[in-house]
């Protein structure tokens, strides 16, 4: 079997972020919960734009775009999409044109990620209320239009949740294992969000190929467990397709997935998750937002309180700082 560490080292990618991101203890939370060994992996500090997990994915995806000699990147998502805004920042750094397609109404006042997109001079297409299928069709037509005009466009598919995007979190798992070994950090459990499942797939696949150094706990912020599981498995299949390194595990043997903290799903906060935004900021001086990391925090704290974990635990902060400014 080929070595995943070697594979990632040699993979085609472009440098966008500053790595490794910090990994440090949450001392006040430890005191509050009377638990020793609560850590945070600061992927909110990936070093470009407002920061966040998508920078890791974009290193591989835009690496592919540059390899294909593309000069224009099309990203799509809801108005406060972290992916869209981070793509715009990455395009600025790389000197590429960025086109963003948002489904949703254009707001009266530009806030959060939309303000950043404006400052970054991304070309914004607000297409109003639309389904994902309608948005994808709009993107497809834009792609054809740009191609006809002599550009070399590249489309970022599915909010960067693809096998190629998930390589970012295979790489992050390798980085975390190295940090734990070098710093002698006793972390054995990671808590991370599951939206479309890209972060989850990368973590689960990478962790399995590294010999399971961590227990991976995925907190769904969007779909029911069965649906998220399906998305994760699909993305792992794509990872295998790309790396040609097989994944010979049953998913339930190498991770825990829970949908207990998702509330009504993506973008709909629960009372506990909103409370977590305030509590965590006031406890640690670190900002999380309503959609992803607040729900993970609620799930992690519950697992600690209910003694479902032992030893060092790590909260993977995936960012989303840009969107926070539109949430309250
Ligand atoms: C996109 C995103 C995620 C994870 O999404 P997946 O689709 O599950 O990979 C998590 N947190 C933030 C802040 C994000 O922007």
Description:
With 328 residues, the chain is an alpha/beta fold. The protein has two domains: 212 residues, Rossmann fold, CATH 3.40.50.1100; 107 residues, Rossmann fold, CATH 3.40.50.1100. It has 13 helices and ten strands. The strands form two sheets. It has a six-stranded mixed beta sheet with strand order 1-2-10-7-8-9, with helices on both faces. A four-stranded parallel beta sheet has the order 5-4-3-6, sandwiched between helices. β3, α4 and β4 form a beta-alpha-beta unit. The longest helix is centred in the middle third of the chain and has 21 residues. The chain is globular, with a radius of gyration of 19 Å. The termini are far apart. The model has no long low-confidence stretch (mean pLDDT 96). Keywords: Pyridoxal phosphate. Its cofactor is pyridoxal 5'-phosphate. Belongs to the ACC deaminase/D-cysteine desulfhydrase family. Pfam families: PALP. This is D-cysteine desulfhydrase.
Please report the total strand number as a whole number.
Answer: 10
Assign the CATH class of the largest domain.
Alpha Beta
Our measurement of the CA-to-CA distance between the termini, rounded to an integer number of angstroms, reads 49 Å
| SSE pattern, N- to C-terminal | HEHEHEHEHEHEHEHEHHEHHEH
CATH architecture heading of the largest domain: 3-Layer(aba) Sandwich
Oligomer classification? single chain
Describe the strand arrangement of the main beta sheet, using strand numbers: 1-2-10-7-8-9
């Amino acid at each position: 079997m080929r070595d995943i560490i070697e594979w990632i080292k040699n993979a085609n990618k472009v440098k966008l972020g500053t790595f490794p991101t910090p990994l440090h203890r949450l001392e006040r939370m430890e005191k509050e919960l009377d638990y020793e060994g609560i850590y945070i992996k600061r992927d909110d500090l990936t070093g470009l734009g407002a920061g966040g997990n998508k920078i890791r994915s974009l290193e591989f995806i835009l690496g592919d775009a540059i390899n294909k000699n593309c000069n224009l990147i099309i990203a799509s998502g809801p108005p406060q999409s972290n992916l869209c805004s981070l793509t715009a920042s990455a395009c600025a750094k790389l000197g590429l044109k960025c086109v963003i397609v948002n489904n949703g109404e254009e707001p009266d006042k530009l806030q959060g990620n939309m303000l950043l997109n404006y400052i970054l001079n991304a070309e914004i297409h607000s297409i109003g209320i639309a389904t994902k299928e309608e948005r994808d069709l709009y993107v497809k037509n834009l792609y054809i239009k740009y191609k006809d005009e002599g550009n070399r466009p590249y489309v970022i598919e599915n909010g960067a949740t693809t096998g190629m995007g998930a390589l970012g979190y295979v790489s992050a798992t390798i980085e975390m294992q190295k940090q734990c070994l070098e710093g002698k950090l006793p972390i054995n459990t990671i808590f991370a969000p599951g939206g479309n499942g890209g972060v989850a797939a990368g973590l689960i696949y990478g962790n399995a190929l590294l010999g399971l150094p961590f227990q991976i706990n995925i907190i769904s912020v969007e779909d029911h467990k069965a649906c998220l599981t399906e998305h994760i498995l699909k993305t792992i299949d794509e990872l295998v397709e790309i790396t040609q390194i097989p994944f010979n595990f049953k998913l339930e043997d190498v991770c825990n997935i829970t949908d207990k903290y998702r509330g009504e799903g993506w973008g709909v906060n629960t009372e506990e998750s909103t409370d977590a935004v305030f509590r965590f900021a006031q406890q640690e001086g670190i900002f999380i937002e309503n959609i992803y990391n607040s729900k993970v925090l609620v799930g992690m704290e519950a697992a600690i309180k209910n003694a479902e974990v032992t030893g060092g635990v790590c909260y993977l902060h995936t960012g989303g700082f840009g969107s926070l400014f539109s949430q309250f």
